Amino acid sequence: MFSGKSRASSNTKSQAAAAVRPAQPSLLAPDLRIEGNLVSVGDVQLDGSVTGDVFTRKLTIGEKAQITGAIVAETVRIAGAVYGEITAMNVELTSSAKVTGDINHDTLSIDAGAYIQGLCRRMDSGQKRRVEEVITGRSAVETDSEDDLVDDKVIALEGPAAKASAGA
């Protein structure tokens, strides 16, 4: 009944269940203002403002939110304002969206009333591969070349340890 064997299998099952569960989304409140790049391998709900680039798996931009910088994501849903280039597999612009910048996409959905000032282009296979690398965390934050989607100044926001290692 209390053998080590059943306990080990129980631990293995709980570890597997934890690995399957998706991470909680990061919520950025309306009164939050970030100056710098934002990196997350999970989902981000942004209701504040970001001046910098955003790299994440899924990004939801609220009606009052504003981003000034590039976005690289698997899925982006925009209800607020974006001033910069968007590169994502799936892009959805709601009727309240305001985008000033180019949109590189695989699929694009635009509700009536959305504002776009820029080019909308379908991604090529190289862009798709780079987006996949960024959202899965496999892409190294390496160089300053124009072909890279991330630069060497990105700071991952992962808690107090990341802040201490960044020298803050």
Summarize the structure.
The protein has 168 residues and is an alpha/beta fold. It is built from three helices and 14 strands. It has helices at residues 4-20, 125-136, 160-165; strands at 26-28, 33-35, 38-39, 43-46, 49-51, 54-61, 66-68, 71-78, 81-83, 86-93, 98-100, 103-110, 115-117, 120-122.
Structure explained in plain terms:
This protein has 3 helices and 14 strands. It is an alpha/beta fold and 168 residues long. Strands 1, 3, 4, 6, 8, 10, 12 and 14 form an 8-stranded parallel beta sheet that branches. A 6-stranded parallel beta sheet has the order 2-5-7-9-11-13, with no helix packed on it. The longest helix is centred in the N-terminal third of the chain and has 17 residues, at 4-20. The model is unreliable at 16-20 and 140-168 (pLDDT under 50).
Ends distance: 51 Å
Name the average pLDDT.
78
Rg from alpha-carbon coordinates: 19 Å
Shape: globular
- Taking pLDDT < 50 over at least 5 consecutive residues as the criterion, the unreliable ranges are 16-20, 140-168
Number of strands: 14
Summarize the helix and strand pattern as letters. Answer: HEEEEEEEEEEEEEEHH
Helix percent band: 10-25%
SSE topology sketch:
Layout: H1 4-20, E1 26-28, E2 33-35, E3 38-39, E4 43-46, E5 49-51, E6 54-61, E7 66-68, E8 71-78, E9 81-83, E10 86-93, E11 98-100, E12 103-110, E13 115-117, E14 120-122, H2 125-136, H3 160-165
Parallel strand pairs: 1-4, 2-5, 3-6, 4-6, 5-7, 6-8, 7-9, 8-10, 9-11, 10-12, 11-13, 12-14
Highlighted features:
disordered C terminus
